[in-house]
Design brief:
The chain is an alpha/beta fold. Helices cover about 40% and strands about 20% of the residues. Helix 14 links the parallel strand 19 and strand 20 (about 445). The chain is globular, with a radius of gyration of 24 Å. The structure holds adenosine-5'-diphosphate (ADP).
Length: about 500
């Protein structure tokens, strides 16, 4: 162990940046704290604007070589990264749980396998993006364009800055890093300052997999201190960000002088619509599932909208089911709801709940913090549509319940926020599902299911929930410079 290595649950984690294929230490550090017990994990390099610029320079220097690397070779290396993730799955799972407090059992069985899958999927998907050729569409008898061919190619764009949040650190990082690298771009990844650890392990894994130096760079530190150095840098060709709306606005402004293309995945206040014809057990399961990750999920359906005739029965069954949730140490297999990320976040959650109650909301369950950094799963009802608790993202285990009389009112309430990330429907009627879905403003609609995310599908939010879509071909639309080459039938020198 060196002074720059921490041992986290038995796993060695380097605390420095990863720039140009080597570890770089900052003069200053910040303290990483575990939400499980509020204790310090250790000191992490606190990046400076100069170090951020160094990382962009490394990404720029590595770009021509990586962009020229044949697609199949890039794919081979990304599969080797996935192998490395699978090999170190247990270590990644326990380090992530220690760092962000999400359930160890989900990291083991869901999240980390998905991280590996992200690398495999985007490596393979790139190979399906054939260079496309087509003849010019006949244009009203004009001679121009006759016999010409078009050739579309997916060119790498250049260095990309990828900024990720703390609620699903390595999952979000891999969701951006994998397509960016597959496309032939180089990357500067900035993990959230509350969860710096698994990104550092990813650096080790990519190095072992043979990813050339400078292709992936990682800078640790506070977004407020190094964000601008990354997002306003003229050599950066793409910025993909997942986080809060105010930070997205800031990044949009700082990247504007260079017109750097951005992709934003932001907050949500998604509805779960439960119609009287729904399978009620399924609807209750879907509702209780919204407490996953202690409610720290941008996609969470935090507004439960129930058709009037079944509201009482739904609430009774929901309360019964939620009472069976076990809250506690996320490393324990029996735990369903873990801690919230930070004391500041806990205060924020409690503030939302207290203001809602003061404004007339009734607490059905929860409504208070637990011991340590935990918040009791909470359901509030008697809430006004225009109230803060219905309109603003809480990012904690807090749900609201409202009722509706008919389909029109359900749709009106569902769409009546600034957001449009996702919506979930519980209904037994196919036609109703089609009618309602057509009217919802949401990047993703789930019908009688939740959180099923196929990597081929476009993912992102409408309104203030985001800009752009990533996933499958949409990821490559964003991370590539599409080029169309038009070739005339004449003008060739004939040989031989
Ligand atoms: P939250 O409020 O959920 O923590 P943020 O949007 O502040 O969400 O954080 C998400 C990510 O954005 C983190 O990696 C954070 O460091 C980064 N970030 C924060 N401020 C900036 C900024 N001004 N420029 C770039 N990135 C930033």
């Amino acid at each position: 162990m060196t002074e720059h290595t921490l041992t986290v649950a038995g796993v060695a984690v380097d605390t420095r940046h990863w720039i140009g294929g080597r570890r770089v230490a900052s003069a200053g550090t910040f303290t990483d704290v575990s939400p499980i017990d509020g204790k310090a994990i250790g000191a992490i390099s606190r990046g400076t604007p100069a170090e951020a610029a160094e990382a962009v320079a490394a990404a720029k220097a590595a770009f021509p070589g990586w962009a020229a690397t044949p697609r199949a070779e890039r794919a081979r290396i990304l599969h080797a990264v996935a192998d490395g993730v699978e090999k170190r799955l247990e270590e990644l799972a326990i380090v992530e749980t220690t760092d962000n407090g999400a359930l160890l059992r989900s990291h083991r069985r869901g999240v980390m396998p998905r991280v590996a899958h992200n690398f495999r999927f985007f490596a393979d998907w790139l190979l399906t993006l054939d260079h496309e050729d087509f003849d010019t569409y006949p244009s009203g008898g004009s001679a121009a364009g006759r016999g010409h061919t078009n050739h579309v190619s997916w060119d790498p764009a250049g260095p990309c800055v990828l900024i990720t949040p703390w609620n699903a650190p390595l999952m979000m990082a891999s969701w951006k890093v994998a397509p960016a690298l597959a496309a032939g771009n180089t990357v500067v990844l900035k993990p959230a300052e509350w969860t710096p650890l698994t990104a550092s392990l990813l650096a080790d894994i990519t190095a072992e997999a043979g990813l050339p130096a400078g292709v992936l760079n990682i800078v640790q530190g506070y977004g407020s201190e190094i964000g601008d150095a990354l997002t306003s840098h003229p050599d950066v060709r793409r910025i993909s960000f997942t986080g809060s709306v105010p930070t997205a606005r800031h990044i949009a402004a700082s990247s504007a002088p260079n017109l750097t293309p951005t992709s934003f995945e932001l907050g949500g206040k998604s509805p779960l619509l439960v119609f009287a014809d729904a399978d009620l057990d399924l609807a209750v399961d879907l509702a209780v599932e919204q407490y996953d990750n202690a409610g720290q999920v941008c996609l969470a359906a935090t507004r439960i909208l129930v058709e009037e005739p079944i509201a009482e029965e739904f609430t009774r069954r929901f309360t019964e089911k939620a009472a069976g949730l076990t809250q506690g140490d996320p490393r324990d297999e029996a735990t369903d709801v873990g801690p919230n990320i930070h004391p500041r976040q806990l205060e924020k959650i409690d503030g939302f709940v207290r203001r809602a109650v003061a404004a007339g909301a009734r607490t059905v369950i929860g409504g208070h913090p637990g011991d340590g950094q935990y918040y009791a799963p909470t359901l509030l009802t008697d809430v006004a549509q225009d109230s803060e608790i219905v309109q603003e993202e809480v990012f904690g285990p807090v749900l609201t319940l409202q009722t509706f009389r008919d389909e029109d009112e359900a749709v009106r309430l569902a769409n009546d926020t600034r957001f449009g990330l996702a919506a979930t429907l519980a209904t037994g009627d196919h036609e109703r599902a089609d009618r309602v879905t057509a009217q919802l403003v949401a990047g993703t609609v789930w019908v009688n299911c939740f959180f099923v995310r196929d990597l081929q599908a476009p993912f992102g939010g409408s309104r203030e929930s985001g800009v752009g879509r990533e996933g499958g071909t949409w990821s490559f639309d964003f991370y590539c410079d599409l080029k169309n080459t038009v070739t005339a039938p004449k003008g060739w020198k004939h040989h031989g």
